[in-house]
Amino acid sequence: MLENLESLQFASEIPEEDRFWLYLQGRSRGLMIEACAHATFFCKVFYNLRELLQKNQNSSSPSTKSGDVDMDDNRNLKVGIIGGGRLGKQLARTLLQLVPIPAASLRISTRRPEVLGEQCKLGVQCFYHNSDLVGWANVIFLCCLPSQLPHICIEIQTSLEKACIVFSFVAAIPIPRLKLLLNHTNILRPQYHCVEDFEKIWGANKEITAALQDPVILRATCPYSPDGGIILNIKWLEGLIYAALNMCTESNVDCRQALQLLNQLFLSVHFKDCMKHEESCPEFQLPHVISKSYVKNLLHRRPFPWFDLTAVQLRETPFSQYHSTNTVLQDHLTYLYYDSFGIAPKKEEELVDLLDSPSQ
C-alpha cells in the first residue's frame, strides 16, 4: 500500500548526506535471503539422504515393517532453531513452506517463546530450553546474537550428540572458536563476502518465501554465483559433502555404498547432453574424498572415518583439489541446486534425471 508514497518510505526522513548508507538495508536483506536459501537446500539434501539410507536399510533387512512408527520417526529430519528473532522466524517460515518440513519436526527455543504466535499456530513447538532442543534434533540452526552464544554453548554442549549437525549463522564467531565453545566437530558455518558494487536484485517488497520462488533471486543465491553482490565461500559446499559422509558413517554404511549414495544424492541431475556422453559425467571416487595413502589402508567393507567438518572448511582436502578444477562437477552441483528449488538454469538447458532424482 505504501510502495508509491515516497513521503512515507523509510528513506524519506534520512538526510541526503547519509543516504549513502541505505545500501546496507539491501545488503542485510540479501544476506537474509542467502541464509534461508542455503538452509533450505541443506535440509532438502539431508532429508533426501535420510530417505536413501532408510531404503538401503530396508533392502538389507526386508523383514522391517514399512509402517513402523519408530522407522517413520527416524526418517523425518528433526530440525531445531535456537533464537526466535528476525532470522529465526524467517528461517522457520521458509523451512515449513519450501522444504517442506512438517511442523512436528521443527522446534524453536528462544527466551521469548510468547512472541512466536504465528509459528505456534502452525504446530511448531516453541519453548525456552536449549539443551532439550539439542537432545532431540538432528540439525540445530544457531540464529542468536554473538553475545548470547557463549552461554548457549555452555548449556548445550553436554547434550550434543556426535551426529547432530550444528549450522551456525552467528557471523561474528569464527569456526575454530565455535568448535572450542561447543567441544564439537560436526559444525557448518556459511561465510559470506559482500562486494562493493552491490546489486539491488533482492526484491525489497517481497516476503522471503516469495523471494525464494523468484528465479532471478534464486540463481543469485547459488553457491557459485557472484550475482547480487554477495558471495558464499565454496568451502561450505565442501562441508556439506563431508557432512553427508558422516551421516553414512553414523548409519554404519560401508565406504563403497556411501559413495554410491553420494553420487545418487548430489549427481542425479544431468545436462541434456549427458544422454549422449554419459562417460563424461562426474562420479565420486575414494581418492576424491580421502587421501591416496588412506585409500590404500582402507578396508572397503568398513565405513569412512569420521570427518571433522571444522577442519574441512578451514583446510585443503582431497575434495578441494578434485572440485576446484572440475568445471563439469561444478555445473552438475549448480544444476542440482536449481532443481531443488524447481527452477531451470539460465540458458534454459533441459535437465535430465538419469538416476531418479531425490529432490522431488
What does this structure look like?
This is NADP-dependent oxidoreductase domain-containing protein 1. Probable oxidoreductase. The structure is a single chain. This protein is an alpha/beta fold. It has two domains: 22-235, NAD(P)-binding Rossmann-like Domain (Rossmann fold), CATH 3.40.50; 253-353, no CATH class. Helices cover 44% and strands 9% of the residues. The chain has 15 helices and ten strands. It has helices spanning 23-60, 69-75, 86-98, 117-121, 130-136, 149-156, 175-182, 208-211, 215-221, 235-250, 255-266, 292-297, 309-314, 318-325, 327-340; strands at 79-82, 106-109, 125-127, 139-142, 165-168, 187-188, 192-194, 230-232, 269-270, 352-353. The strands form three sheets. The chain has a six-stranded parallel β-sheet with strand order 3-2-1-4-5-6, sandwiched between helices. A two-stranded antiparallel ribbon has the order 7-8. It has a two-stranded antiparallel ribbon with strand order 9-10. Mean pLDDT is 85; it is low at 64-71 and 348-360.
